[in-house]
Design goal:
Number of strands: 22
Strand content: 15-25%
């Protein structure tokens, strides 16, 4: 028989594929907190000896690195393709030798699970276990075959290094042995000079197959009880050639993959430049001392952040206070939760001619639907937020009206069409290759992975909107740096009065309150002492932090209620998969 030596090789294109797979694995690994435990299997060394009866005696050493507290390890074995697994024993490898460990066996049918007990806390341990696989070798008329999975798709934990050595009965010769390995493309399988088969894999990913197929003369296992008169050597060799050809054909898909990846990247960058990046603005100034426009604070909040937040709702209510549409009073009565006080809103001015649709809706929503027509308390708003779907539905509707107001003023535009097309292109490519493409082409689905990173925002500022955005940013810098620009005086305090509601979406409200307090203290002894009769003296501003938390928690609670309610309704030679055996490793 002609001697053969099978080695795994990788083309440059295959290396690129492995890189994409590795990046995908990194993206899917959850970030663990410091309090969670974890373990790593850093090395696996398997020595399998075949006797003259065709039994396989396996000794395996696994190195575990534990972070946290564990009670032991798990060894899952599959006895399919054999007459059973016997004589299982487990040890911990220490300097003085092997320490026997207790274990429990469970499992039905072909799958067996061994729970090996060894308490471990933030340490590294080496475990050794051994077992015998009865009649693992199949003897045909013209060859004997060991076709065995050492790990299969049920192995949930990655293995950093796997070395498998298979030792055939005495009298073996390298020239009479043929070996194949099925597993990662980086694996290498070699028939050594003394006839031993060595299979090495640097990294075995979770749920990945690793198996060997070794052919040798029937005389090696003359006492085997698993014999067939059917000649199978040529069939097996042809099967392996087809599998190798299938794998090598994947190299021809690499140029197409490179082309598809280039097209996706080019399309992605085009979408980014056209629909994701905001247009350039030729307006550049450090500070802007007046209100850039008469837009409502909610619209400005959406312009700045491209989303409508609870602070925009609060800013709108405080704008009503400033414009004397409503009045706000702090009550002595407590409110449910951590807050100490309740608040009452009174609807005084019901003329809505100068209000925008989202402003008019907010007044009707709070006072007529939640309140008693002319007044509404925060406790009533919070109670309404606890009703699944009620408050959150109105909140979504109000957000939509704010966005419509920004679009109507041509400050932003909606990119829903291109947004859907990019997602559609990603889904078609990824799942199309996964479910519809031939096996050789399935891996091209990973070329679609860059597309989601180029998905444009649903909303994008227009050129006019970008100019106004820059002006409002400059106005926000003016509010934050006011104490460094000019000396405070009594008139300065009154200038800040209408600015406060816009300081909220600009993130300058707390700084503005602080600086206004300083101004009041500095003018306390002057003849023109500021008496706090403007907006700063109102309950809303003096209780800014508490009111902010109330609005934020109310919106958050309504969203949470909705979500809680909805929750109820190898050798690189082949894909392998033949033969017997299987299983995985773990810890408990």
């Amino acid at each position: 028989m002609i001697a053969r030596e099978e080695r795994a090789t990788m083309s440059n294109g295959t290396k690129i594929v492995m890189l994409f797979l590795a990046l995908l694995m990194l993206l899917t690994v959850p970030i663990a907190s410091a309090e969670e435990r974890s373990f790593e299997i850093s090395e696996v060394a398997i020595h399998a000896t075949i006797d003259a009866e065709g039994n396989m005696h396996v000794t395996e050493r696994d190195t575990y690195v534990f972070q946290g507290i564990y009670n032991g390890i798990m060894v899952n074995l599959n006895r399919s393709g054999s007459d059973g697994i016997e004589q299982f024993a487990a040890y911990e490898v220490v300097d003085g030798g092997n320490v026997p460990l207790t274990f429990e066996q469970a499992g039905n049918g072909e799958e067996l699970q061994y729970r090996i007990f060894s308490r471990s806390v933030d340490t590294t341990k080496v475990f050794q276990f051994s077992y015998t696989v009865k009649n693992a070798v199949q003897v045909y008329a013209d060859t004997a075959e060991l076709y065995w999975k050492f790990f299969d798709e049920t192995n949930d934990n990655p293995l950093s290094m796997v070395n498998i050595e298979i030792e055939l009965p005495e009298g073996r010769s390298k020239d009479e042995i043929t070996a194949f390995g099925h597993g990662p493309l980086s694996g290498t399988i070699v028939v050594q000079e003394d006839g031993r088969v060595h299979y090495e894999v640097d990294v075995l990913a979770a749920n990945q197959l690793l198996e060997t197929r070794v052919l040798f003369p029937t005389e090696y296992v003359s006492a085997s009880g698993k014999i067939s008169d059917e000649p199978m050597l040529q069939h097996i060799l042809e099967e392996e050639r087809n599998w190798q050809s299938q794998q090598s054909n994947n190299d021809y898909t690499v140029p197409w993959a490179a082309l598809l990846l280039f097209i996706n990247l080019a399309a992605g960058f085009t979408v980014y430049i056209r629909y994701r990046r905001h247009p350039a603005s030729d307006w550049k100034r450090d500070y802007y001392r007046e209100l850039p426009s008469d837009s409502s604070p909610a619209v400005i909040g959406f312009l700045m952040n491209l989303r409508v937040e609870s602070s925009d709702l609060m800013a709108t209510m405080l704008d009503f206070v400033r414009k004397t549409y409503i009045d706000m009073q702090k009550l002595d009565a407590p409110i449910a939760g951590k807050e100490k006080h309740d608040y009452m809103f009174f609807w005084k001015n019901k003329q809505q001619d100068g209000l925008q649709p989202h402003e008019g809706m907010l007044l009707k929503w709070f006072f007529r639907e939640i309140g008693k027509g002319n007044q509404v308390s925060f406790s009533e708003i919070k109670a309404n937020a606890a009703i699944p779907g009620d408050f959150s539905g109105k909140w979504s509707e109000w957000q939509g009206k704010v966005k419509e107001a920004a679009i109507e003023r041509k400050l932003v535009k909606k990119n829903s069409g291109i947004y859907r097309w990019v997602l559609f292109a990603f889904l078609v490519q990824f799942f199309g290759f996964l479910f519809l493409a031939p096996a050789d082409w399935k891996w091209l689905m990973f070329c679609a992975i860059p597309l989601p990173f180029f998905v444009p925002r649903r909303y994008q500022r227009t050129k006019e909107g970008q100019i106004e955005y820059e002006k409002w940013r400059a106005f926000g810098r003016f509010l934050r740096a006011y104490n460094r620009i000019e000396k405070h005086n009594t008139m300065a305090v009154h200038r800040w009065d209408p600015y406060f509601v816009y300081a909220i979406p600009l993130g300058a409200a707390k700084r503005m309150i602080k600086e206004t307090k300083v101004s009041i203290q500095n003018t306390k002894n002057s003849a023109s002492y500021y008496d706090g009769s403007t907006l700063y003296g109102s309950t809303a501003v003096r209780e800014y932090d508490q009111v902010t938390r109330l609005f934020r928690d109310t919106v958050t609670e309504s969203t949470k209620s909705t979500s809680d309610d909805s929750s109820d309704s190898g050798g690189g030679f082949s894909s392998g998969g033949g033969g017997g055996g299987g299983g995985g490793r773990g810890a408990f």
